[in-house]
Amino acid sequence: PIVPLRPLLETSNKYGFAHGGFNVNSVAQAKAVIEVHSMFRSAAILQAADLANGFMGGKADFLNATLEDKKKGAKNIATAVKKYADQVDIPVVLHLDHGKDFESVKAAIDNGYSSVMIDGSHLEFDQNVELTREVVKYAHERGVSVEGELGILAGVEDNIFSNESTYTNPMKVCEFFKKTGVDCLAISYGTAHGPNKGKDTKIRKEIAIASKENLRHEGIFGTLVSHGSSTVPQYIVNEINDLGGNIQNAYGISIDQLKSVTKHGIGKINIDTDIRLAITRNIREYFNFNPNKKASESLKDIWSIMKAKPDAFDPRAYLTPIID
Ligand code: G3H
Ligand code: 13P
Ligand code: NA
Ligand code: ZN
């Protein structure tokens, strides 16, 4: 069934672990995320960003998605996710990632999302508080959880690249939770969106530690969210490039660092880039079929399909590597 994010945060907070928040852009990916979580007997958090909703509403030119496109997309994905979620016995959260404004968030809530992020991180503190509080009021009245953001991440967001991070001020975190009533908060602490996070990036763990300590001290429940946390596996980048791709200077966050912050208040870890890379690798391998080359273990099913059918042109065959 579909559930809000809040109960998952309470559990991860209590036991000191973090859930993955996995971004999707299609029903095929959503189904895959639900299936793999069901396999591991874990609650699932599916996320779609604002523009992903526009895309799933049928807008190919998703950068120019209108509110109408977002409404359609939210309805499409929520209807499909609800169907799949009702067929498994794990809790499934459908979360809006980086909601831009009140109207986009409302489009998600009104069409079946169980959790939303309002990203007011580019606003002044007081305006961020005001917008977030307005969203919390609308969402909580409808049983929907809310994530806010304080501080600005470097990297690509909505196709806009920014070089600089503005780290979250841990002294402001309590005040933000208190004034807005959010269930969780994205912090900026050294991670970055996209594949170019920099070599050997070190998470500024002390920002999470200090934020969480302040919350504990004030007796406020509050979970922190780690955005820009893809690990960018080098073997996948290399395989993409061997298959004709050109992804340069791509480095992620180490698993060890991500593990270590789960003990310091990080209850959700957002992953989008790793999924995009995995899909790109698989699709490239699919279309670069070479019957004389030995298939990698993970792709042997796809390769056997291709070997049997080099003349295949059924799109369902291409959806298989996406799901995988
Ligand atoms: O955090 C941002 C996500 O990677 C969403 O990306 O706006 O291209 O869907 P998108
Ligand atoms: P990555 O680009 O590291 O996957 O981060 C995704 C994210 O933060 C989505 O909100
Ligand atoms: Na942001
Ligand atoms: Zn993000």
The total of beta strands comes to: 11
CATH homology superfamily name:
Aldolase class I
CATH architecture: Alpha-Beta Barrel
Number of helices: 13
Indicate how many domains the architecture comprises.
1
Fraction of helical residues? 40-55%
Instruction: Spell the H/E element sequence.
Output: HEHEHHEHEHEEEHEEHEHHEHHH
The small-molecule ligands in this entry are: glyceraldehyde-3-phosphate, 1,3-dihydroxyacetonephosphate, sodium ion, zinc ion
Oligomer: single chain
Please characterize this protein's 3D structure.
The protein is of the alpha/beta class and 324 residues long. The protein has one domain: TIM Barrel (Alpha-Beta Barrel), CATH 3.20.20. The protein is built from 13 helices and 11 strands. The strands form 2 sheets. It has an 8-stranded parallel β-barrel with strand order 1-2-3-4-5-8-10-11, surrounded by 9 helices. Strands 7-6-9 form a 3-stranded mixed sheet, with no helix packed on it. Helix 7 crosses helix 8 (205-218). The two termini are 23 Å apart. The site of zinc ion (ZN) has 5 residues, from loops.
How would the blueprint of this fold be written?
Layout: H1 6-15, E1 19-23, H2 27-39, E2 44-49, H3 50-56, H4 67-85, E3 92-99, H5 102-110, E4 115-118, H6 125-140, E5 145-150, E6 154-157, E7 160-162, H7 170-180, E8 184-187, E9 192-193, H8 205-218, E10 223-226, H9 234-242, H10 255-261, E11 266-271, H11 273-287, H12 300-308, H13 315-323
Parallel strand pairs: 1-2, 1-11, 2-3, 3-4, 4-5, 5-8, 6-9, 8-10, 10-11
Antiparallel strand pairs: 6-7
Helix pairs in contact: 2-4, 3-4, 4-5, 5-6, 7-8, 9-11, 11-13
This protein binds glyceraldehyde-3-phosphate (G3H), 1,3-dihydroxyacetonephosphate, sodium ion (NA) and zinc ion (ZN).
